[in-house]
Specification:
heterodimer; A: 115 residues; mainly beta; 7-stranded mixed beta sheet; B: 114 residues; 6-stranded mixed beta sheet; 4-stranded antiparallel beta sheet; 0% helix
């Protein structure tokens, strides 16, 4: 059983560009959350998707957007990249029982470097 | 808002030493508490969890007890191994409705030497 997978592993972009990161959840999971982990810091919650809708959002600007597909996979899009967006982006999947959350399983992350 | 405070690292111990990593939290309700571990170049792995006051989570020799009176969830292990070297994150999750975001501390790096 494959766990949470993310692509690409590494990415280098320049300021002002746009980037799309991808996540496939663990089999049987229907909820995807995204986190940003800056170097030496703990992960910060960006948003969560359930039933193809954004269910909860953290304190991130509108430049950060996402999408969930019918097969539960998800994308994170970041527009107008800033140097400060350089970080490890983690995807976590979970399943909802009666709409309530369960344990989150994390992928290995995508390392984004903005030059 | 919710927050988690961890002791700063790095923590350097000799193999077989006793480990304590302190964690305290601030939350408006009654959160679930977690310890995650991150090995070099990898994502986060759940180490243990506790969902209500006085619960003790345990896994792989690690333990942590949910102390509501002191708002703490300290991680302990009686005898560390070199393979325990990693970054440890304390986290909470509010149990309100469908909200399930995790709020993390800044992490504590543990280095175990022979």
């Amino acid at each position: 059983d494959a766990g949470v997978t993310q692509s690409p592993t590494h990415l280098i972009k320049t300021r002002g560009q746009q980037v799309t990161l991808r996540c496939s959840p663990k089999s049987g999971h229907d909820t995807v959350s995204w986190y940003q982990q800056a170097l030496g810091q703990g992960p910060q919650f960006i948003f969560q998707y359930y039933e193809e809708e954004e269910r909860q959002r953290g304190n991130f600007p509108d430049r950060f957007s996402g999408h969930q597909f019918p097969n539960y996979s998800s994308e994170l899009n970041v527009n107008a990249l800033l140097l400060g967006d350089s970080a490890l982006y983690l995807c976590a999947s979970s399943w909802a029982e009666l709409g309530l959350p369960n344990e989150q399983f994390f992928g290995p992350g995508t390392r984004l470097t903005v030059l | 808002g919710d927050s988690v405070t961890q002791m700063e690292g790095p923590v350097t111990l000799s193999e077989e030493a006793f480990l304590t990593i302190n964690c305290t939290y601030t939350a408006t309700g009654y959160p679930s508490l977690f310890w995650y571990v991150q090995y070099p170049g990898e994502g986060l792995q759940l180490l243990l969890k506790a969902t209500k006051a006085d619960d003790k989570g345990s896994n792989k020799g690690f333990e942590a007890t949910y102390r509501k009176e002191t708002t703490s969830f300290h991680l302990e292990k009686g005898s560390v191994q070199v393979s325990d070297s990693a970054v440890y994150f304390c986290a909470l999750r509010e149990n309100t409705g469908t909200a399930s975001k995790l709020t993390f501390g800044t992490g504590t790096r543990l280095q175990v030497t022979l």
